[in-house]
Amino acid sequence: MNFKKKMFGLGAVAVLAVGLAACGNDDKADDKTTSGGGNSTSVGESVDYKITGIDPGAGIMEATDRAIEDYELDKWDVTTGSGAAMTASLKKAYDAEKPIIITGWTPHWKFAKFDLKYLDDPKGSYGGEEEIHTIGRVGLAEDLPEAHQILSNFNWAEEDMGEVMVAIQEGEKEVVAAQNWIDANPDKVAEWTDGIDKVDGDEIKLAYVAWDSEIASHNVVKLVLEDMGYDVTLTQVEAGPLWTAVADGSADASLAAWLPVTHATYAEKFDGKFEDLGVSMEGVKIGLVVPQYMDIDSIEDLKE
């Protein structure tokens, strides 16, 4: 897939990206080899045949297992951990200009903060361009019709989400970053809520995974729903429990369904037990990601 990376708006992200470019060291970059360390070590040896992953229930981890099989990467292992642990490992390696391979996805603030690239995926293990969907429990439209309509209307662009993600990454509290975006984008919020009656304290439960993208979207929608009179509870879980919660009704909805590839297993497993409320963002992507200074361009190169 030929993915065109977007800048996350004209504010903090643009300044951040320019600052990073200005601080680059061309001399060090010129010294990089496949291993990132100035020698002839293969990329596999340079990273101990390790791909740094995230939580084991994430769809991107299933896709990575598929990639290892598709590309016959018999020596390789994928480590598990949180998204925060993955980005901490990335920062440590990047600051030292060491090689690292991670499971990555866009939108994510790391593409603004670090100079990164996706490895080409000629076998299509990670699928093509994806979408983020909003899903709801069966019966949501009848029980909470106003919320159902707002959630169905919810749609925003990568640069919108990026503004919230970067603000949080730079130290802003999640709720403050979300509110600042809402205050700056009243017309977009109005597209979600116009013509919908407010309610009086109706309860709604939203489940989300601890990806920076989903933290941003759920905090924004939480505040929008609260302004419409809802009592909103956010629950952070892994992908499997998220889909289970929506399917069994213990959660009302989630804005974190990545389809058709990342969460394909869950969508198939719970077919008929949830409602797809619509696409909130197009053009998202998952795959293996490395720093630009690494002399490697394709997952196929990992066999060398």
> From N to C, what is the helix and strand string?
HHHEHEHEHEEHHHHHEHEHEHE
The radius of gyration over CA amounts to 20 Å
Rounded average pLDDT: 87
Q: Give the end-to-end Cα distance, rounded to a whole number of Å.
A: 23 Å
Description:
It is found in: Cell membrane. Its main location: membrane. There is one protein chain. The protein is of the alpha/beta class and 304 residues long. The protein has 2 domains: 12-128 and 286-303, D-Maltodextrin-Binding Protein, domain 2 (3-Layer(aba) Sandwich); 130-284, Roll (Dipeptide-binding Protein, domain 3), CATH 3.10.105. Helices cover 41% and strands 19% of the residues. The protein is built from 14 helices and 9 strands. The strands form 3 sheets. Strands 3, 4, 5, 8 and 9 form a 5-stranded antiparallel β-sheet that branches.
Topology of this structure?
Elements: H1 12-22, H2 26-30, H3 43-46, E1 50-52, H4 59-70, E2 77-79, H5 83-95, E3 102-106, H6 110-113, E4 116-118, E5 130-137, H7 140-143, H8 145-153, H9 158-169, H10 174-184, H11 186-193, E6 203-208, H12 212-227, E7 231-236, H13 239-248, E8 253-259, H14 264-269, E9 274-291
Helix pairs in contact: 9-10, 9-12, 10-12
